[in-house]
Amino acid sequence: MPTDQCLCRIIHQDRVERASQAMPPNRETDRLSLLFKALADQSRIKMLMALEQGEMCVCDLAAFLGVSESAVSHQLRMLRQLTLVANRREGPVLYYRLADAHVSQLVRLALEHIRE
Amino acid sequence: MPTDQCLCRIIHQDRVERASQAMPPNRETDRLSLLFKALADQSRIKMLMALEQGEMCVCDLAAFLGVSESAVSHQLRMLRQLTLVANRREGPVLYYRLADAHVSQLVRLALEHIRE
DNA sequence: CTAATATATGAACAAATGCTCAGATAAAAA
DNA sequence: TTTTTATCTGAGCATTTGTTCATATATTAG
User: Fold this and answer.
1) pTM above 0.90?
2) Helix or strand or coil: residue B105?
3) CA of B1 to C1' of D7 (A)
4) How many other C-beta atoms can be found within 10 angstroms of the C-beta atom of residue B67?
């Protein structure tokens, strides 16, 4: 009579408690996963890496990625809300840039990992 | 007569080319997004952070996260395929551990970012 | 061998994601 | 003002994701 769950509940109570104590508050792990979620997409990763070379407008990014400008605009909104990018208006054109250097560092470290 | 796409194609050809030249091959950006995808989930982030404290079995992780062991097992498979975790069998029990220190570094850096 | 334990796995399904499409908005040109 | 350009936005839809459920597998006990 197979059950959905194992009958065991906790094999090592001490390890579970140790992990719980070392864990930062939910608020932080939640923001962590949001940050990584922003990087968890080919287009967004490329956009952020492209912006490391200097600011670009929406048209530029769309051409670079080979996708529609609407799609880029949607992605940029997400990155803006997470304050990973910022923009500056010059007439009708919006120039986007990286909001700070943290993202570049994360990407660089991740690159080192996958290249090892 | 509004169009779906902007009529402009490329405003700054030089910036698009500069970005393209600086971009690593698709193979790498693809692996990058896969890596970040693995971290883009509350449960997986917590699992990886928990394993920084030492190895844990599936039961332990399920108890710690408060989710079913089946769910944990599915997540572990993904982390295994990305070689972010490794395991060791002791009788019927599988003990999971971090495969290397890179993930910890990434999480630490990301934590610094959201805490700033 | 059979039974029990710990974990793995495939199918199914709900929720989240990323795109497209049709339009809305902001700024400059005519 | 009207028109055009560059970007934004919401709705709709297809794909992906994370879970549950039922079952399969691996190991040990009896």
Assistant:
1) yes
2) helix
3) 16
4) 13
How do residues A1-25 score in pLDDT, each as one tens digit?
344 455 566 679 999 999 999 999 9
> Which residues face B56 on adjacent strands?
B96
Q: In chain B, what residues touch A106 (CB-CB under 8 Å)? A: 106, 109-110, 113
Domains identified in chain B and CATH numbers: 25-115 (1.10.10.10)
Residues in A closer than 8 angstroms to B68, CB to CB, are 4-5
In terms of CA atoms, which chain B residue is nearest residue A42? B33
| Residues in contact with A40: Cβ distance below 8 Å, sequence separation at least 6, in sequence order | B33, B36, B37, B39, B40
Residue range A37-62, pLDDT digits in tens? 999 999 999 999 999 999 999 999 99
